[in-house]
């Protein structure tokens, strides 16, 4: 016997703590109408996991709590505990006794305890389902539901059968798997949508990151090229500067040497200059004297002119051969003319002596006038004599001076030429030095330019080490172009935005997470589909294999209940049998249809059956099920209500027959049914409006106590 004891407190009409010992194969609960019998079966159903208040004959959870009466205050909570004997290991837990307790408080909060540990409602439903128990179906048949099997829809019938066959566990698992599948599919859809949503932005961020990475590569190549190129440039320019400095230094040395030489030449020149005594001065004087002589000569010319005029005049008066005089004076005139062009003193002297001779020839033919002319002639001759003397002196002096000056001039010219040469040389060297300095300046400027260019492009010129020959001269231009290209590329990429990088990293990891999630979901969807298929297969196989026997048993029980006829349970033609390795859709579940033929009746439609007949068919189905798969217990609440005495007795006999395998809790008013019970509980309503239990253990041969029997007997339900 599985059920051991039921304890109620504050549950519906059971205000006080009430205990029902269920230690029997058939336990009958009897009592007057409204005494609280069905409240006991409600408690059992509630403990077995019923969720729907309606099935507990209430509208909300609070209705389960004792509401109070005029004399008895209401309870704060309702509690019902069912004790199971687990010594046979019926439940897969390590307890000899299993207790399941359910409790509800007025705020609607429900608690469930399995051996005092709180568990969820869902878990207790699973727990019972694993052991083929449940609140629905045929394990507990409520009052007024004796015809439940007939009334139900084909699919509901199937579920009842499945529950009693213990397939509910698979159904629950399948429902759970389907719920998970739906969730997974939903989440998959969401994740896919999210991926789609972030994809464009992620692509943009990825491109940015690629650009930034590319930027690093370009930057590295650029640095490398810059190092080589500028290193080479700086090296070349430094070498050039060095060369120019060295050359300038040597030119400067040259200049200083030349300057010394120039100084020496200048000194020499000065010395030569200072060695020029009075020679030039003396020559000047001589020349002055010469000028004077020339001036004197002019005077002589004038004087001779006068003499010429006088002679011409005296000739006409005296008859002197005028022609002769004219020719003499003509000669004198020519000589004087000649002397005017002459600078050589000795020649002038010669000319003058010729003139004196001619003048003597002209003397002969004059009288008094001639005597004057003679005086003048004397004077002129004397002067000429003096002139000759002076000229002679000058001649000596000039000769002497000319010899001295020629030597000086030669020396001066040599010294002067040397001095000038030194000056020219210095000039040439200075020009060369200036050119060198200019070149140096230009080179320095170019070096500065390069450094400035480097600084502008973000490089510290100090980090570039000068080298030489890293890049061949003929490649420099191409390298420079490449550097410019790299710089342009970098400029177009722009600076690295740390924010973008961070965002890219976050978005990437989010994307990665979603991809993994999609993978996981895909896998779990495959697994869940496989599980669902497997469960469908199990349900189908178990069901189909039991169903035939159930149908045969049903036929037997119909025959018993109706003294003939036949019955058949038929599966609706819609079930798709799941195939191995086939991604078949979830097979549709075929419901169970009932086909009966009763003696002397044509049954086209189950609706035409009477209430009692419907109950009998349902009872036949219930026992067919029980015979194929006996449940550990059945709770039947007045399923005999519509049965006549004969059929109630038949029910009693069937209960007795199956009680060896199944424990029965039966609420009944029927004496025939009470008689098969080995434990009888009487429920009464006390004056304070609460239910009370009276127990009476019966031995198999005991009669049902008269009082109770009468009591019950009076109240068969219509
Ligand atoms: P019958 O033989 O007519 O079917 P019964 O013995 O099965 O009767 P129940 O339906 O079990 O009777 O009990 C109904 C009684 O329980 C009613 O009198 C009802 O007032 C009482 N009852 C139900 N819920 C509560 C509650 N929350 N508080 C107090 N009493 C309640």
Write up this protein.
The chain has 718 residues and is an alpha/beta fold. The chain folds into three domains: 1-22 and 31-135, 3-Layer(aba) Sandwich (Rossmann fold); 146-165 and 536-640, Rossmann fold; 186-452, Methane Monooxygenase Hydroxylase, Chain G, domain 1 (Up-down Bundle). The chain contains 15 helices and 14 strands. Strands 2-1-4-5-6-7 form a six-stranded antiparallel β-sheet. Helix 5 (168-274) runs antiparallel to helix 9 (368-456) and helix 6 (279-318) runs antiparallel to helix 9. The protein starts with a strand and ends in a 5-residue tail after the last helix. Mean pLDDT is 84; it is low at 581-586 and 706-718. It binds adenosine-5'-triphosphate. The site of adenosine-5'-triphosphate has 16 residues, from helix 1.
What topology emerges from the helices and strands here?
Blueprint: E1 3-9, E2 18-21, E3 26-30, H1 37-47, E4 77-85, E5 97-105, E6 110-114, E7 117-119, H2 121-130, E8 140-141, H3 148-151, H4 154-164, H5 168-274, H6 279-318, H7 322-341, H8 345-361, H9 368-456, H10 476-493, H11 498-562, E9 566-571, E10 592-597, H12 611-628, E11 633-637, H13 645-658, E12 663-667, H14 671-675, E13 679-685, E14 691-697, H15 706-713
Parallel strand pairs: 3-12, 3-13, 8-11, 11-12
Antiparallel strand pairs: 1-2, 1-4, 4-5, 5-6, 6-7, 9-10, 13-14
Residues 12-13, 31, 33-39, 63, 65-67, 143, 683 line the site of adenosine-5'-triphosphate.
